[in-house]
Structure formats: structure tokens, C-alpha cells
Design a protein that fits this description.
Helices cover about 40% and strands about 25% of the residues. The strands form 3 sheets. It has a 3-stranded antiparallel sheet. The longest helix has 17 residues.
Amino acid sequence: MRYFQNFPSVVYRTSEIVNGIPQLTDRIVPNMTVRFKPFFENFSFVPYTVQDRDRPDTVAAQFYGSSEYTWVVLLSNEMNSLYDWPMSSREFADYMNAKYESAPGANDGIAEAQNTNTHIYEYRWIHPTTGQKLVVDQTYYNSLDSSQRESITVYDYESGLNDKRHTIKILTQEVFASFLRQFQQFVSVG
């Protein structure tokens, strides 16, 4: 993938056994520890809601004219792998059915996750700065008045995580070329 060609390089030592003899090999690999979040703060983005038919490569082609820029879509949204991409409705249903089914092959994971499993307990107090609810353990949760507490099912928790992934940010067309130039300089310096 061309994305890695401008990363600074590091030597990575591997060991393997060849004919019963340990051998060390030095390999030159891209330095994957480079951090990018501060770099992206210098650019403007527009929000985009990922649709069921979208993939990172199709979004890159739609906005940047080529699937070659899939890495821009993923990296600008702090996605480290395709597993960070939101699941489609069908993928989510398959995932839930497989992960939470009551018995192998039962294909009832969605119903199980909706009805029987509590994933987190929330205290309805909302943090004044972040707006987030406070997650508490079950003991503290049980000590709260019913008007102050809310339990979140596994299904709602997993669905909420996936829903959040559907809103991504896309670099604006006005800054895309500048971004590519500056990114190349950024990773070349290392």
C-alpha cells in the first residue's frame, strides 16, 4: 500500500529456526508508532454518514476520486483497521447472532442480547462538561433510586458503538491536495 512508503523506517529484528539453528534477521519496516492526531487538527472536515453500501475504498473514490486514498479516510477517522469501520445492518445482525447466541447454531443472539444481558449500569447523573452519563458497578447501581439509574442491554450497547462509527469526517476538497503534500512531508521527517 502506497500509504506506508513515506513512513520513517526502523530496524525490526526477527528470529526464526532454520534447520534447527536459531537465526536472527534484521528487517527494515515502516515505523508504525508515528502519531497523527495533532497533524489532522490543521485541516477542515465535513461530516459524512456511512451508508450500508459504503466501504472505505468506495468513500475514498467518491470524495477523493480514487480508492487509492482509502488510507486517508481511515487515518483521518483514527481507524487502525477495517474492523473499526461501521458494520452494515446485515453485518451487525450476523455479528450479534453469532456472538450472543444461547447455544451453538441457535442464531438467536439478537434476542438474547436484547432481553437477558445487561452490559452496563448507568447513573443518570450527567457530567456537566462532557454530557456523559456515569457508568457504575452493579452494587452502586442497586443502591440508587430507580429514577436515578438505567441499565443498558448488550444489544443497545453494541448498537450504540456501531451507530457512533457511522458518522465519520471527510477532508474538504479545498484542503485535500494540501493535506497530501503536508502529510508526505510529515511522515518523511519522522
